Amino acid sequence: MVVENKLAHFRVHRTGTSLRNHPRRSIFLPRITALLLPLIMLTVAATTQPVSAAGASYAGADPRLQQAVAWSARQMSSGRLWIEGGATQCGKFVENAYGVTGLYPTAYDMYRALGDSGDPRRHTLAGLWDAPAGALVFFEPTTRNGHNGHVGIYVGGGQFIGVGTGGHVRQHSVGWYNDNIAHFLGWAYPSAGWPGNSTAKAIGTSTTPVSSPRTTAKSSAPSMSSAGKAKSASTNVSVKSRATGHGA
Questions:
Q1: Residue-by-residue DSSP string for 209-240
Q2: Distance (Å) of CA 183 to CA 119, 150, 166, 174
C-alpha cells in the first residue's frame, strides 16, 4: 500500500507539473512568431524591391535584358568585326544590343551617364552578384583601351560578353578581366529610354546593310552597287557612333 500510494502521488505530481508547464510553453510560440515575422517581411521586401529609374520597374520583368543577352550571344558566331579606324567598338556593341546607336563617344562616357552613381555596392565585384543578366558592366580607362574605358553585357555567373582585341566578340569572366586587363568600375541598368533589340542584326553600320522599310516594300527597286552601299553606310554613321574601347 505504501508503495502504491507513493506511485500514485508521483503520477499526480508529474501530471500537475505537466499541466502547469503547458500554458507557459504555449505563450512562447506566439512571442517567437511575433519576433520572426518582421524579419520575414523585411526579407520579402528586399527581394521584391524595384530597381532604379535607369532600369525597368522590376529587373526580372524587363524583356530588354533577356533580348540583349540573346543578341550578344548570337554576335559571337556572326563573324562581324566591331572595329572602325583601328578602334574596337565596345560601346556601340552594347548600344546595339539595346536597339540604339551613337549615344556616347566612349565607353567611359556611357559609364559616367549610367553607372557612376547609385548603390556603392554596384561598384564592387561582390555587388556584381546582384546584377541581372543583361546589365551593363564597365571597366576603367587604361592605355590598353586608349583611355576610353570598356563596357560589355553581363550574362550571369560572373561572365560578360563584349568586343575584344581586333573587334571580335568574346565572353570573359569579369573577375579575370578585372585582374588582367582593366579594373572593374561597376554595373548599371540600361537607360529607360532604350527600346531593346529583339532582332539578330546590329543597328547601324554592318557587313550586311539592313534594308529600309521603303526599299523592302518596293521589290522592283534596283539594288545599289557595292560602292553605293559603302557610301550609304558611311554617311549614316554618326560621329558619335565611334564609341570606342579595346578589349582582350
A1: PPPPHHHHH-TTSPPPPHHHHHHHHHHHS-GG
A2: 18, 10, 21, 9
Q: What is the mean pLDDT of the chain?
A: 73
CA quadruple 116, 120, 122, 128: dihedral, nearest 10? 150
The residues that bridge with 139 in the sheet, in sequence order, are: 150, 184
139-186 pLDDT tens trace:
999 999 999 999 999 999 999 999 998 999 999 999 999 999 999 999
User: Using only C-alpha atoms, what is the Rg of the chain?
Assistant: 30
Kindly write down the DSSP assignment for every residue of the chain, as one continuous string: -HHHHHHHHHHHHHHHHHHHHHHHHHHHHHHHHHHHHHHHHHHHHHHT----TTS-SSGGG-HHHHHHHHHHHHHTTT----EETTEEBHHHHHHHHTT--SS-SBHHHHHHHHTSSS-GGGGSTGGGGGPPTT-EEEE---TTTTTS-EEEEEEETTEEEEE-GGG-EEEEEHHHHHHHT--EEEEEPPPTT-----SSSPSSS-SSPPPPHHHHH-TTSPPPPHHHHHHHHHHHS-GGG--BB---
pTM of the model: 0.60
Overall residue count recorded for the chain in this entry: 248
Bridge partners (DSSP) listed for residue 83: 88
